Amino acid sequence: MQEKRIHEIFQLSILLKGAHAMIECLGGIALAVTSAATIRAWVDRLTQDELLHDRGDFIASHMLAWAQTFSVQTQHFYAFYLLSHGVVKLALVVGLLMNRLWAYPASLGVMTLFIAYQLYRFSYTHGLGLIALTIFDLFVIALIWHEYRLIRHHLPVK
User: Fold this and answer.
1) Dihedral through CA 52, CA 55, CA 60, CA 61, nearest 10?
2) Exposed/middle/buried for 32, CB within 10 Å: 0-12, 13-18, 19+?
3) Per 3-state DSSP, what percentage of the chain is helix, strand, and coil (rounded to 5)?
4) Using CA atoms, how far apart are residues 77 and 67, in angstroms rounded to an integer?
5) Most-buried pick from 70, 103, 136, 149 (CB within 10 A)?
6) Among candidates 99, 77, 94, 85, which has minimal Cα distance to 31?
7) In whole angstroms, what is the distance from residue 81 CA to residue 78 CA?
8) How buried is 82 (Cβ within 10 angstroms: 0-12 exposed, 13-18 middle, 19+ buried)?
9) CA-CA distance, 130 to 113, in Å (whole number)?
10) What is the pTM of this model?
11) Rounded to an integer, what distance in angstroms lies between the CA atom of residue 104 and that of residue 114?
12) Helix 72-97 and helix 103-125: axis angle, to 10°?
């Protein structure tokens, strides 16, 4: 594949990672400023009509069960997790888009750690979303590694 095309795909994938990081930051902030009781009330309202029509509705019943066990500690953990995860990814995305040499190995290391955590979580949840995210992350890692090799190849020899 042509190097220009690979670079365009790299930039697009990094922009997608940046968009995902922004969503994580916004979600973390939203969780931090919303009370656990409010979240439970929202889920109650969202699921009430569906459960009146179909008591066995899989999604609505699971959402309601999750909301009933949603504690302040869980809320704080997820708010911190989403916000810190998003901020780290945003910093890396900005570094990569600005062609900062430090951002390439840092991104490779951080994304490898994120993948390890995603696979660990998958072992408990069996969520296919985690597998999809991991596959995308592996694709992005390959693109970052490719770009990093090109940039290092074009650096002046000291």
Assistant:
1) 130
2) middle
3) 85, 0, 15
4) 15
5) 103
6) 77
7) 5
8) buried
9) 14
10) 0.76
11) 15
12) 150
In eight-state DSSP terms, residue 155 is: S
Query: In the chain, count of helices (H) and strands (E)?
Result: 6, 0
Distance of alpha carbon 127 from alpha carbon 121, whole angstroms: 8
Q: Is 24 exposed, middle or buried (0-12, 13-18, 19+ CB in 10 A)?
A: buried
Report how far residue 148's alpha carbon sits from residue 104's, in angstroms, rounded to the nearest whole number: 6
Ordered by start, the domain boundaries in the chain are: 3-153
**Amino acid letter for position 75:** Q
Structure tokens at 11: 């930039």
DSSP class per residue in 25-74: HHHHHHHHHS-HHHHHHHHHHHHHHHHHH-TT-HHHHHHHHHHHT--HHH
Residue with tokens 């660990």: 120
